[in-house]
Amino acid sequence: MAFSMHSHSGQFCPSHARGTLEEMVQQAIKRNMTHLALTEHMPRINVSDLYPEEVAEGVSISEFIPRHKAYLQEVLRLRERYQKEIKIIIGFEGEWITRQYGSTIKSLAHDPAVDFFIGSVHHVHGVPIDHNAQLYNQAIRLSGGTTQGIYADYYDLQLEMLVELKPRVVGHFDLIKLLNADPGRSPKEYGKVWKKIQRNLQFIVEYGGLLEVNSSGLRKGLPEPYPGRIICEEVIQLGGRFTLSDDSHSTVHIATNYERVVHFLETIGVQEVYVLERSDRHHDSERKAELFVKAVPLSVVKAALSSE
């Protein structure tokens, strides 16, 4: 069985993704996936948090909540339609831009239709750090002008999110490396940053979160997925658990580079990954379904990929 706990569609993320939600589900079925988490980006709540292209396109902040509601209606329809072919888990990607977003994420997660959310950080000092080099450099300046400074601020902000939300899945743990001039450089070389990474990982392990191994780093040109080898080895030492994600933004991203990710995990000694599984026992429209964690041998994922 193959699966992804993180995906987006152009239907509900029109500024930076492609394809409809149904096309994403159909492609996941073609790629021999047994589980797919649909996790569109959460509604942002401040005009200042719009991306440059959204501002240029005249996007209104008032569009986001209605779009999120439409997303939930559509994903419920798709889960019913494709229930015999794939298990769909309904979620969203939480955006921890400032502390103000904590209450919004909790409110969105309270909806009975929502199974879980991904806890992610895409901004430092309110500036996107994975969008383009100009914005990344702006965030560096706000962090004191050094790479060590922005890394430290990123992991401190991530800890705020983790403590407040305790997300079931932690998204692209080391996303901060994407636009770094030397993204493959060991975080151990950034002084106090490594201790902050260890602190955050320890907290995730203690509350039982899953750290996604996200293949999108590879398709964006990084030598390793998120998180990199050194961080993954630390997770193993701490007794942590991994899940798999392709962070797809179009149908062509579904399971892209999964073979490389499986090989990467094999080389560091990972023998199993974990998927979120829904139980519909005692579930109705007013109550959430039970969600539990299921172990999947890495060899089973590998076999599923090779049998396509």
TrEMBL record:
Keyword ATP-binding carried by entry: no
Keyword Transmembrane helix attached: no
Enzyme class: hydrolase
Entry GO MF terms: histidinol-phosphatase activity
Enzyme Commission designation: 3.1.3.15
Catalytic activity: L-histidinol phosphate + H2O = L-histidinol + phosphate
Cellular component terms (Gene Ontology): cytoplasm
Pfam families: PHP (PF02811)
Gene3D superfamilies assigned to the protein according to its UniProt record, in alphabetical order: Metal-dependent hydrolases (3.20.20.140)
Family, per entry: Belongs to the PHP hydrolase family. HisK subfamily.
NCBIfam families named among the record's database cross-references: hisJ_fam
PANTHER family in the cross-refs: HISTIDINOL PHOSPHATASE-RELATED (PTHR21039), HISTIDINOL-PHOSPHATASE (PTHR21039:SF0)
Protein name according to UniProt: Histidinol-phosphatase
Organism: Oidiodendron maius (strain Zn)
